[in-house]
């Protein structure tokens, strides 16, 4: 059986790999099941160590112990007084497909047992492989199952920053523990395993930094969610954009849609964001995911945010779309809520009577907006527009006089539409958002509702390189009812465009001027901030390309270790140089040392042969003390040397006796005989396994002198 140390080290690697799923479920949800499964497997190995007759049953015992550990830590709610039931067996069966369900959720996912269970099952499989591989393969193979588990976790979400460094360090320690040689005698402490682990760690960390720095596009790491999330159940129904005209109808505009209560008024409530336009319909194809335990703003939002909360009471609102906000964090009170994270769209299969919504609100002022550029990489912001009429393309160019796409030009386009086009106010209200309706609105000066204003704005903005999308929702009242709730009606339905602002994310505009029509503006709301910025925008022909505001200190803190401000190239070059120095320098130093010893005069050359043989064996793990003779060394090296090497040591011992105890200086033939024995020792050591020979060649400690001096060296000095 493998030693306790190697078994514990390899199982620790599996545990580290399992904990790499921390960003998916949260570390607290995984810590207990992962550690308990690994401890249960280790307990089985100890049992088999004390009862060797159980070795043939070890794989089965490992599986049973691991499953029991999984049941007690994850699926205990399915047990009866701690004992597995039929529901427990079904839950374990569902765990085989839980990895797919996890991919269909935002992260961190809800720590539901039906989702979490696949991680300890994966850890159990890896632990079983570890236990069996350690008894049949070289020690380093035992770390591969743990690396495989960590690799699967990286396919879910790639670790970065300080967390990735810690994981690399952990695997480095495991490798060092696996490389420490075993010996029945008390071995000398070798630094080679520690150095090997350190080199692996440094190369992994620096290589990751170098690869990250060498990616000029700063692309998002691949995740399995990109391929699997499209399979998430999504009850797509009629778009709220198609229902907008019906809500604004005179006969239904007073119908209460929903009510909400919040510590402060909310400017808008969104239902859906649409960024695909084929000339006839506005849609979106971003994946819809199950909402996890909490959703945080994406990397595109680099400004500070503040938490917001509201309680929503649904009245006359059909599903699956729920009133929401751009950056939702969590939803409580709704059954199986789903979300389209790019657009902030909330959905549910069954519309709840009441739910609580929390979200993040960017802290932005007018000055920052005006100094900001646009985010051309925003998903869907510069999507297709279908067959754009030539007259509309010319209109888009004239509207902004060829100015560069910035937030200031986005506001200028909004002001252009407010001044040029009229808002329809009489029945029947115009409907439609395809090119025929937009052509009549944009070119023939027909009045339009917010539907035509928003769709027309997105078309003109994209034609000018401004990333924009269309959003449907409701404007919210600024005053509460007597009971403290705000009432939203069909007549408050609204469509508006959003533009992607660099560092801020998506920002709403109001080309129809309807978001606060007839109402006071909520102080500090996006409408209020936009109004302040709009007043500072000069005429379009006077707009200058602004300088992008540098990131604030808080945003740098939020970036963490993802893009460390360190000389990555310098660290990489120095690390590679140190690695090459070790790989090439250590063997070269040992060769030069042997040449120097061989060229010594007289008895010193014989002593040099003895020292060379001794250090060669030290490099192969033989425990050597300062008081050993050549024959003592031959006995200590019995487990390492073969017959040829033993014969070589005997030749060296003979030569040492002739040189040091004959009473005179040894002739050249004695030196040649001693070094011939050294050659035999080296040839004998070449029969050892390749891994042992590589370790000996790169071993550092044998380059240092033994503490306490050398008895033979003192004898040579006395003879002189």
Automatic annotation (TrEMBL):
SMART domains membership: TGc (SM00460)
Keyword Cytoplasm: no
Domain Transglutaminase-like: 442-513
Alphabetical UniProt keywords: Membrane, Transmembrane, Transmembrane helix
Start and end residues of each stretch annotated as Disordered: 514-561
Transmembrane segments: 30-48, 55-75, 115-133, 140-157, 163-181, 193-214, 568-589
Pfam families assigned to the protein according to its UniProt record, in alphabetical order: TgpA_N, Transglut_core
Name of the molecule in the record: Transglutaminase-like domain-containing protein
UniProt source species: Kribbella italica
Organism taxonomic ancestry: Bacteria, Bacillati, Actinomycetota, Actinomycetes, Propionibacteriales
């Amino acid at each position: 059986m493998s030693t306790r140390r190697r078994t514990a080290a390899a199982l620790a690697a599996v545990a580290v790999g399992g904990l790499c799923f921390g960003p998916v479920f949260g570390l607290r949800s995984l810590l207990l099941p992962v550690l308990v499964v690994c401890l249960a497997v280790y307990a089985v190995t100890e049992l088999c160590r004390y009862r060797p007759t159980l070795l043939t049953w070890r794989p089965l015992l490992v599986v049973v112990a691991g499953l029991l550990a999984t049941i007690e830590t994850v699926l205990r709610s399915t047990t009866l007084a701690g004992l597995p039931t039929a529901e427990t067996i079904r839950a374990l069966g569902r765990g085989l497909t839980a990895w797919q369900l996890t991919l269909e959720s935002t992260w961190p996912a809800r720590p539901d047992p039906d989702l979490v269970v696949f991680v300890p099952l994966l850890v159990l499989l890896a632990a079983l492989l570890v236990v069996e591989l350690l008894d049949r393969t070289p020690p380093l193979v035992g770390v591969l199952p743990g690396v495989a588990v960590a690799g699967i976790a990286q396919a879910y979400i790639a670790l970065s920053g300080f967390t990735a460094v810690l994981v690399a360090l952990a695997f480095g320690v495991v490798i060092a523990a696996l490389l420490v040689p075993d010996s029945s005698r008390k071995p000398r402490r070798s630094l080679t395993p520690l150095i090997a682990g350190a080199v692996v760690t440094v190369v992994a960390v620096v290589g990751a930094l170098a690869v990250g720095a060498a990616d000029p596009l700063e692309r998002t790491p691949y995740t399995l969610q990109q391929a699997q999330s499209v399979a998430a159940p999504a009850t797509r129904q009629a778009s709220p954009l198609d229902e907008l005209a019906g809500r604004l109808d005179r006969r239904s505009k007073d119908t209460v849609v929903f009510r909400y209560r919040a510590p402060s008024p909310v400017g808008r409530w969104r239902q859906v964001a649409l960024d695909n336009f084929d000339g006839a319909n506005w849609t979106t194809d971003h994946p819809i995911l199950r909402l996890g335990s909490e959703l945080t703003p994406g990397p595109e939002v680099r400004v500070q945010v503040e938490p917001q909360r509201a309680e929503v009471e649904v009245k006359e609102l059909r599903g699956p779309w729920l009133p929401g906000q751009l950056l939702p964090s969590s939803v409580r009170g709704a059954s199986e809520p789903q979300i389209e994270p790019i657009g902030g769209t909330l959905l549910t299969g069954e519309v709840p009577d009441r739910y609580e919504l929390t979200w993040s609100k960017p802290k932005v002022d007018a000055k920052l907006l005006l100094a900001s550029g646009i985010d051309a990489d925003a998903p869907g912001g510069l999507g297709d527009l279908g067959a754009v009429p030539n007259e509309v393309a010319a209109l888009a160019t004239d509207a902004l006089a060829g100015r560069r796409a910035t937030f200031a030009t986005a506001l200028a386009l909004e002001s252009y539409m407010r001044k040029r086009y009229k808002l329809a106010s009489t029945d029947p209200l115009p409907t439609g958002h395809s090119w025929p309706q937009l052509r009549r609105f944009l070119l023939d000066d027909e009045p339009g509702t917010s539907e035509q204003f928003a769709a027309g704005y997105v078309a003109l903005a994209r034609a000018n390189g401004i990333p924009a999308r269309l959003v449907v929702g409701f404007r919210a009242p600024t005053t509460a009812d007597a009971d403290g709730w705000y009432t939203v009606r069909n007549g408050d339905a609204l469509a508006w465009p959003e533009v992607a602002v660099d560092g801020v994310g998506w920002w709403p505009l109001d080309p129809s001027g309807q978001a606060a029509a007839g109402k006071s503006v909520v102080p500090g709301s996006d409408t209020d901030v936009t109004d302040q910025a709009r007043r500072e925008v000069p005429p379009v022909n006077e707009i200058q390309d602004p300088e992008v505001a540098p990131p604030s200190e808080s945003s740098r803190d939020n970036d963490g270790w993802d893009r460390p401000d360190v000389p990555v190239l310098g660290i990489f070059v120095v690390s590679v140089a140190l690695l090459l120095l070790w790989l090439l320098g250590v063997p070269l130093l040992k060769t030069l040392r042997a040449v120097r010893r061989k060229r010594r005069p007289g008895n010193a050359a014989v002593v040099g042969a003895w020292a060379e043989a001794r250090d060669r064996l030290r490099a192969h793990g033989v425990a050597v003390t300062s008081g050993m003779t050549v024959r003592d060394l031959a006995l200590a090296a019995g487990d390492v040397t073969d017959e040829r090497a033993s014969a070589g040591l005997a030749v060296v011992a003979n030569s040492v006796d002739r040189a040091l105890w004959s009473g005179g200086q040894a002739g050249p033939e004695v030196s040649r005989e001693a070094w011939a024995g050294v050659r035999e020792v080296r040839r004998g050591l070449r029969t050892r396994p390749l891994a042992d020979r590589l370790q000996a060649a790169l071993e550092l400690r044998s380059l240092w002198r033994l503490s306490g001096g050398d008895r033979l060296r003192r004898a040579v000095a006395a003879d002189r």
